Amino acid sequence: MAPELQRLLDEEAIKKVHLRYCRAIDRRDFELLRDCYHPDAIDDHGDYAGGIDGFIEFCREGTLNFLSTTHLTCNALVEVEGDVAWAEFYGRAYHRVPAGPDGVEKEIDVVREGDFF
Questions:
Q1: Does the CA dihedral 108-76-15-44 come out positive or negative?
Q2: What is the radius of gyration, based on Cα positions, of the chain?
């Protein structure tokens, strides 16, 4: 296969992992979430930094507080050089939370950008 074609296939595969991650969180599909990571991966989400088992538990517990979540992703930049890749994604996450004492449901809007290697 031509190197240019392989590079495009690799870039697309990386973009799909990011989309599967968003789907996994929004659907609380923690097996799909696990499939988005290498077994020895480290995730640094700010509130959590550590291995994938701990991250999955962090998400499992954290998403119980939400009525729903919706992740939107855009501006995906992926660069592949041989067997090394770098990626940057911009995104927004909307987390719907139950009504508080005021009786009003709220939506938390999280804007995030990240580098992934």
A1: negative
A2: 16
pLDDT tens-digit readout, 27-75:
999 999 999 999 999 999 888 999 999 999 999 999 998 999 999 998 8
| CA triple 97-112-107, angle to 5 deg | 15
**What is the distance between the terminal CA atoms of the chain, rounded to a whole angstrom?**
24
- Can you tell me the distance from the alpha carbon of 32 to that of 9, in angstroms, rounded to the nearest whole number? 21
Strands (E), 3-63: 42-44, 49-51
The answer on pLDDT for 117 being more than 50 is no
3-class secondary-structure state, position 104 = coil
Enter the tokens of residue 57.
């538990």
Q: What is the 3-state secondary structure (H, E, C) of 15-76?
A: HHHHHHHHHHHHHCCHHHHHCCCCCCCEEECCCCEEEHHHHHHHHHHHHHHCCEEEEEEEEE
| pLDDT value for 113 | 55
Mean pLDDT of 77-101: 90
